[in-house]
Amino acid sequence: MTTQLTTPTRQHEIEAVEQSRRGIWPGFNGQAGKRWTARSRRDFLVFLALALPNLALIFVFTYWPLINNIYYSTLDWTLGSPSATVVGLDNYVTFFTSDDAGKVLGTTLTFTAVTVGGSMVLGLLLALALNAKVRGTTLARSAVFAPYVLSGVGVGLVWLFIFDPGYGVLSWILRGVGLSSPQWINDPQLALVMVMIVYVWKNLGYCAVVFLAGLQSLPRDVMEAAALDGAGTVRRFLSVSLPLLSPTTFFLLITTMLSSLQAFDLIRIMTPLGNGTSTLIYEAYLQAFGAFNRAGYSASISVVLFALLLIITVFQIRFVEKKVHYS
Amino acid sequence: MSRALLKTNRPLASELSPARPLPGPFSRANLAQTVVAGYLPLTLATLAVVLPLLWMVLSSVKQPGEIVTTNLQLLPQAPSLDNYRTAMTTVPFAQFFANSLIVTIVGSTIKVLLAILTAYALVFVRFPFKKAIFLIILVALMVPAQVSILPNYVLIAGLGGKNTLWGIILPGLGTAFGTFLLRQHFMTLPGSILEAAEIDGAGHWRRLWQIIVPVSVPSIATVGLVTVVGEWNDYIWPLIITDRPETMTLPVGLTLLQNSEGNGAGWGILMAGAVLVIVPILLIFAALQRYIVAGLTQGSVTG
Question: Quick one: which of A22, A198, B219, B289 could link to A159 by a disulfide (CB 3.0–4.6 Å)?
């Protein structure tokens, strides 16, 4: 330890150097009287020069819109029109009292529940398969993760072709077993099913890879002890692996829920009219940028969506992030 | 599963009667087990990903007659690039591709630069309220871009940014993700690596580029690649801020193509378009997937 080898003054200097290297502001660490030296003034300016452009962009294009959105949501305003009337909470009242609310919230709930549940359950099963001690797991892992990084528009078109009732591969397979292809695009319920299947296909690999990392970080000795006690594979998975995986499961639950609520690309490209697939985000888009140009109304839906995302995030911070240290 | 398959230290053989010897590693039972439990799900999962993408590529080089047909044709009889040519003449595809390239390269470069500068400032430059500033960045990380599209549209359109490349790039430039990831990495660097620079009397600029950046190449690559993927695939914002083909990016251009080729004969052309938007990222992913996976799944280990 350096404490025994150096005098208090020397120790103080070492601390000051280390603080300077680590960029710690001296004024907050008991060096009163030396707060506003030429050096700290220069550091102050250097910090602003380096960080301000990014911080300003984040403020203007991330924070300011949130406030603006709330303001817009109180307006009766056609997008592109120079004038707007303040209507208070009318847009919210219209949304929640019309048929729209039930339909949109129902679609959002179905889409989120099915895609989160589907990609997590299948992702976990896939992670167990990837965790097996056989050759080729690295290649399979890359393959299943790949759709997650691909363009939603490109993926949507590929699957739209597969689902095509006339010339799609799926219709050939169905005809092969004597069935006729359902009208995936025209039937509102089937359109939602189709989009959910493709969404799970695209996001499954993410869940699998995160679950795999969780499985591989499970303590070896516990797993071996369970095996020695004669617990079978299924028993070990249910009673040992699954409870130990709960932080990973919770992390995935939150992240997949947030991304499902924001899903746009696939829904837009596969169902351009929102026939049966109008989730909150898609409805907000259609209202402002579809045929209606109802900007104020769209903003109110965005605020509802944001409130929902905020609740989930706060929930996550309260229950998970407590254990995480970002310093 | 039989207990004999488990790797345990217990002398299992002594428990078994000599009539039932331990299955060897290459016994029929063991092989069957490995195939069913190990290879089958992996093969199925890999095929589920590969086959649709393979189908996309095959269909993109087929003739319209091989797609609109009563007999399913798996392989193209005479592979040709006709669909790509048609796509280029129906809509300005080369222009879309160039726009996507510009938006991705310019946007990613600026974002990575801003992330490096901000993260360096947050870790190595003395400043009060750094915790509060970091918190602002953390919260921004959780604010989805989707809820900001209308106010950003009003702002950018008001500035004359509609149908311009800068209008597409600008709102996404502030980077919370890159700053967060690099800041976490810089925090792990020992303060002593700056010692030599201090003796030299090097200022912050030289410390950053000559010491911090060279030892952080993997983290910067991770941020860069994740940013490139995000910029290339970005859809909702370019879709809203452009309505003229001259400034559309590939995903938006594909939407335009879909509108004009939305019948059976157009599938080959649409698949050609899908290849152009999917394959570049697929190649980058194949080459550098280690960084991309690490960047996209970050947070899962600590969380």
Answer: A198
